[in-house]
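pasting for ref
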Amino acid sequence: MIMTCLFENILHRDRILSHFGGVRGGFFLFFIFLKMVGLSQPIAPESPEESAKPWVFWYWMHGAVTQEAITADLEAMKDAGLGGAYIFAIRDVPNPPLFEPSYRTMTPEWWGMVKHAMSEADRLELKLGMNSCDGFTAAGGPWISPEMSMQKVVWADTLVSGGHLFDARLPQPQKLENYYEEIAVFAYPAAEGAGESSYTTIPKVAASTGADVQYLASENNKKGFSSEDPCWIQYSFEQPFTCRSVKILTGWNNYQSNRLIIEVSDDGVNFRKHCRLEPPRAGWLDLDAPATQLIPEATAQYFRFVYDPEGSEPGAEDIDDAKWSPTLKLLGIELSGETKINQFEGKSGAIWRIAKRNTKDQLPDSKCVDLKKMKDITANLQPDGILKWNVPAGKWVILRMGHTSTGHVNYVGGGGKGLECDKLNPDVVRFQFDQWFGEAFRRVGPELAGKVLKRFHVDSWECGSQNWSPVFRDEFKKRRGYDLLPYLPVMAGVPVKSADFSERILADVRQTISEVMVDNFYRISADEAHKKDCLFSAECVAPVMVSDGMLHYREVDLPMGEFWLNSPSHDKPNDILDAISGAHIYGKNIVQAESFTEIRLDWNEHPGMMKPVADRNFALGINKLFFHLFTVNPWKD
């Protein structure tokens, strides 16, 4: 009889898929899993401690939620032996809505549903938690203005000849969300190859596949090229071109594009191998910056980029489909005559990547800008972007540097969707907390919320990295003991003084980002949660935000990782290990796991399949499950 009821429950829950479509995770499998485990265990004389009870992620999809559904769900959770649930509002109300009536996140009616959930949880002696924003990404909302959002360093350079007054408007660096602020303007003597690239001297582009791929040499191209088979792409110049660095643009993570073999030729017939690009370690959200690789100087009329998946590294923490199902994907390749710091995009903290340091042999002092010749000409820049400067003799590079929004939003949200908040600015972090979690207390009432809403949670870090904030320069000086500003060009890939000096400055940048994020986002979040008598739980930040992957667990009460079921394309082994190791290092007794998450599931899952996965993660060191997931079902049939 019990088994019959369990499988009837599976069939009932399966019917809601026709309404919700492809939502993450194994719906309701946690319910039968708990029941099956319970059947094999002796009946306990008393209930386990509340801290030992598993919890669940509770998705409120597309505003399709009713009081009756909330009550039914909470009663089912209580019956299954759960201790509580984290409420996640997922996606906006579609047009037409999936269910009538639906309630958009942040509306009075939606807050009414939240209050009902807390009232019912109180009746059933369950506890609830909420994510740090609408959706399941990091922390943002419509109240975050561009100047309060995550920031990044941007730049634009201009090559000028000396011996006259320069009086012109400088090119505008990237400006996202209609927001840009100046940091500084520098000038330094132009090195050999400055201003020369395949964007200024446009080659003919061909591919061994026969496809028309001229677009790969176009700046700001959005059309993609892909190939599952070995192939090559050839850049043919009218005259020999000297290349010192190569920029790879993919629009997404792609391991194969950063391990191409470069062959060169003087006649377009006889090619010789010049080098092979070396891919960085990259995170799974590798989309915010191109990858610049310093190569040995090569002068040739023909450059061929050869793709061959043979020898590909097996999938690891930076797994992507270009490893386990090798595919080349490209938006463009830029050949440049300029010497750049190898993989400076990751080294500057703009994106999570790890690459080898430049050596003196690769980047000799003669290729680096002499700091004595670097000039700060910020005072010559007018508010309208016009620079007036008497240029000394010779050729000079004018480098205009500023910061703008990264443009990341809590994209899984609905009515509470907006820009992700600045994770390095403590005032903005407090404001974000108050606008979302603080608002929950105000809407529900402090007495009821104080009894039931006991967890503040930061879930998946899906908002990229940031390497600037209005507070960053002062934080850097306080922590590193010197001013970053005179050396800021290294964040644009400009080597200064020496390879070692440039690398050490960039290492200090990354160290500062990591420390400030922990102190100004995680510590502040913990403090604000504790003021509400709530515990603070959080998942991993690496490999998305440039960081020490465990340091933030120092401030978190309840470290959490995530493991997946039947989803090798998404499972990230270090995600669990970071949480476990962080808990051990910083003395946290409870190690949580978002458990059995799935993508493209087959609906053949059963407890026998799930138990070995759970056992393995328990053996690794977790001791509390958060089942992924339970979804509100508003349909009574």
